[in-house]
Design a protein that fits this description.
Elements: E1 3-9, E2 12-17, E3 20-25, E4 28-33, E5 37-41, E6 44-50, H1 52-72, H2 76-101, E7 110-118, E8 123-129, E9 135-137, E10 143-147, H3 150-160, H4 167-184, E11 194-202, E12 208-214, H5 217-248
Antiparallel strand pairs: 1-2, 1-10, 2-11, 3-4, 5-6, 6-7, 7-8, 8-9, 11-12
Length: 249
């Protein structure tokens, strides 16, 4: 199982996920650490939830179009071709599952989040393709979630997300959303937490340059310390408010 989130910030995009997958063996489901976010180009990040095999095949489809997306963005022609290929893949999985099991429920599918910085405008896009191949662009919403625990993630992001967030604040919020989802016990989620940053910089000539990197273990540990301080500050503020209310009565 998986939780992947993407946050649009004023100067870039933050994408984060948990680090655990559930793979199925003859003896039953097995926990396994797995990478869930992939850099397909300097301005393209791919993440998905669902069946590991389906995610791998969808990722291969996006890799075929990575150069076109990187250079041209998420224009209509590109998105139509990609979605058509994903639809054929998902339909094939549904048909195969039904032929073998007698039902479509439980077929190995994928729910996809793709983050793109369209150049030369420097415009950030979040593209969500669901398991039934419907789609939505989340540019105006500002964030997207995929996988088990997505309702929990939406609840937290609704409280903490702001269109004025910069990347530094976005990283802390992304860490908290994934960490809290893991700690609350959403089935199948686990550490390590993986966070990627797509940062937009403007050069002296006025051109935009994109730099994308995966946070190191040291950077993740620093976010963990900030997260703990944030939680402690919330508790302290709450207890102080409760005491003030008691004294005022």
């Amino acid at each position: 199982m998986t939780l992947v989130i993407a946050l649009k910030c004023t100067n870039g995009i933050v994408m984060a996920s948990d680090g655990q997958a559930t793979v199925f063996s003859t003896g039953g489901p097995v926990r396994q650490r797995i990478k869930k976010i992939f850099k397909l180009a300097e301005n393209i990040l791919f993440g998905a939830s669902g069946s590991v095999g389906a995610i791998q095949r969808v990722r291969d489809i996006f890799r075929q179009y990575a150069t076109a997306i990187s250079q041209e963005g998420l224009y209509y022609e590109n998105t139509v071709r990609i979605r058509r290929e994903i639809f054929e893949l998902m339909k094939g999985e549904l048909d195969r599952h039904q032929a073998f099991h007698g039902r479509r429920e439980g077929a190995p599918l994928a729910d996809i989040l793709v983050c793109v910085c369209e150049l030369p405008q420097g415009k950030f896009r979040i593209w969500h393709i669901t398991a039934d191949c419907s789609e939505e662009f989340l540019d105006e919403v500002g964030y997207g979630c995929s996988g088990i625990g997505d309702t929990f993630a939406h609840t937290l992001l609704r409280n903490y997300y702001s269109e004025d967030l910069d990347i530094d604040a976005g990283k802390v919020i992304a860490y908290r959303v994934i960490k809290d989802a893991i700690d609350v016990g959403a089935f199948g989620l686990g550490e390590p937490i993986d966070i990627w940053v797509m940062r937009l910089k403007r050069e002296k000539e006025g051109k935009y340059v994109v730099r994308t990197h995966q946070l190191s273990s040291e950077e993740i540990m620093a976010l963990r310390e900030t997260y703990v301080s944030w939680k402690n500050a919330e508790r302290e503020l709450l207890f102080k408010k409760i005491l003030r209310n008691r004294k005022s009565k």
